[in-house]
Write a structure and sequence with these properties.
Length: 476
């Protein structure tokens, strides 16, 4: 009875819960119908996630490819082709144009200057950008400082060239660089008071070697000495100069005299005579010379009078050349020697802000716990900067450096605007020489195309390095 009941109960259970030996075990499930195959049928090309086919993608890329070919590929191919032909473009020149690149002195100077640009300009701009970014990181007004440093990037190369052409002007009254330089120089070196002063033939003075003037006869005690000069504009006279006064008689055998500007404004004066409206040459140095040796010196007072001791009796009076030397006009920034460093300085002024912004962005992403851990371990700020900050910023520094290197290889505007015609050959670079060779008075498109190909060959290694670096960073 029990067995039959159990059997009936067992039959009443679902098929997947039948008992086996008194234990309920699930029955195996039947295999369901197979999943349907992807739509589209066999033999059809699978679509991407967006359902775009290669043909449609190619149609969308076609306008960009056409522009790329017309604006990049075709000019490169044609420049290579044209570089093997002569100036007229009708005769095959072979590698003569490329041989000219290494034999022509002007082009060789351009290559040398380009090497200087590539080495110094990106390095200095990146170093300044790094210094600015690090030093302004903890300053409350750092953002304002960064904005000021970055502002030159808003100026075009043409405008920057005009600005620095004025900055480097030789005249201190116009050129800021020379105004500062002359101011510093005159602070530590005495300047001449009367650079163009000189005597007239009727004056008792004659020219001496080295730009000095001496009296025509020896001087003696009791005989006042007159030292008149001309050639000084009244407006250029010392502001505290007083009307010239006749010398008083000397005491104890002293030699007295007057040095004055023998010129009356408005006319009416008499030569060799001290008129009432003529001014003394304040500060004029007077030396007593005997047998080639200076035995006494004096300086003229505000009214032009001076006194020499009795030891000057019988000597000649000399006005040394230091009274008349031309004033210091500063440095010839745009001369053959300094024109290239000067232009590089203007480039750094423009691009240091660009480097600073990129480096500051990388600096903001550094893990601060590493820097703080180094400081806790006893590292000073210089060690933290040199051993932690700079190595961790290496990828950013490489980006900035490579970008600026590519940029300076094609620099043209600054050199063309800043360098004057007299020193443009000394500041020449490849991009400027490319323009001069292709569109100058004696244009030679064959040589110009060869320079363009050379520039391309110089840029390619830098670009390949940048691409490899980017791919290496992407694998990390």
């Amino acid at each position: 009875m029990t067995t039959a009941a159990a059997g009936g109960a067992d039959e009443a259970l679902p098929a997947d819960r039948r008992q086996s030996g008194g234990t309920s075990v699930p029955a195996p499930r039947k295999a369901g119908p197979a999943r349907s195959a992807p739509s589209g049928g066999p033999g059809r090309t699978p679509r991407s996630v967006t359902g775009t086919r290669r043909v449609i993608a190619a149609l969308f890329l076609l306008p960009a490819l056409v522009l790329l070919g017309a604006l990049v590929v075709y000019p490169i191919v044609y420049s290579v082709y044209r570089s093997f032909f002569d100036q007229a473009g009708t005769g095959f020149a072979g590698i003569d144009n490329y041989r000219t690149l290494f034999t022509d002195d002007t082009i060789r100077t351009a290559v040398k200057n380009n090497a200087i640009w590539v080495v110094f300009a990106p390095t200095v701009a990146t170093a300044l950008g790094l210094i600015f970014a690090v030093l302004t990181e903890r300053v409350r007004w750092g953002t304002a400082f960064k904005l000021i440093v970055f502002m030159p990037m808003a100026i075009s190369m043409l405008a920057a060239g005009i600005i620095f052409r004025l900055v480097y002007d030789q005249a201190p009254e116009r050129g800021v660089a020379n105004a500062v330089w002359v101011g510093v120089h005159d602070t530590f070196a005495e300047s001449s008071g009367f650079p163009k002063a000189h005597p007239l033939p009727v004056h008792p003075l004659k020219a001496a070697p080295g730009g000095a003037f001496v009296t025509k006869t020896a001087v003696h005690a009791g005989q006042p000495v007159h030292l008149p000069l001309v050639g000084v504009l009244p407006a250029k006279m010392p502001g505290d100069a007083k009307p010239a006064k006749a010398p008083a008689a000397g005491e104890d055998g002293a030699i007295t005299g007057t040095a004055w500007l023998d010129f009356t404004k408005g006319g009416g004066g008499r030569p060799n005579v001290i008129d009432s409206r003529e001014l003394g040459l304040k500060g004029l140095k007077v030396e007593a010379v005997r047998n080639g040796e200076v035995v006494a010196t004096a300086k003229a007072a505000a009214d032009g009078t001076f006194t020499l001791p009795a030891s000057a009796d019988g000597a000649e009076l000399r006005l040394p050349a230091s009274n008349f030397k031309e004033p210091y006009n500063g440095v010839d920034w745009l001369g053959p020697t300094l024109v290239t460093p000067g232009i590089i300085g203007s480039y750094v002024w423009m691009w240091a802000g660009f480097a600073m912004v990129l480096i500051a962005a990388g600096l903001a992403g550094l893990p601060r716990e590493l820097l703080e851990a180094a400081r806790v371990d006893g590292a000073n700020e210089w060690q933290v900067f040199r051993r932690i900050t700079v190595p961790m910023l290496a990828p950013v520094l490489a980006v900035v450096l490579v970008t600026l290197m590519i940029n300076v290889l094609k620099v043209f505007d600054l050199v063309f605007i800043i360098a004057p015609g007299s020193s443009q050959d000394d500041a020449n670079v490849l991009a400027l020489q490319l323009y001069r060779s292709s569109f100058g008075t004696d244009a030679d498109l064959g040589v110009g195309s060869a320079i363009a190909v050379l520039l391309l060959l110089l840029v390619i290694p830098v670009m390949l390095f940048n691409i490899r670096r980017i791919r290496k960073e992407g694998r990390r």
